Amino acid sequence: MSTKIDEWLLEILVCPQSKAPLRLDEEAGELVCDESGLAYPIRDGIPVLLVDEARKIE
Question: Cys-Cys with 36: which of 8, 18, 22, 23 at CB 3.0–4.6 Å?
Fold first, then answer.
């Protein structure tokens, strides 16, 4: 799965839990916050930045 997010959007998005920057994992189709250890899904090109929808990462 390949997901594209505009660079300008990626620069302003932050994790709703930690307020840390997010990085795009194109292969997984997720926005990842290394600080909080959460990965947020991208559905139909739209980031779902809800903590309840995020998955824990190691």
Answer: 18
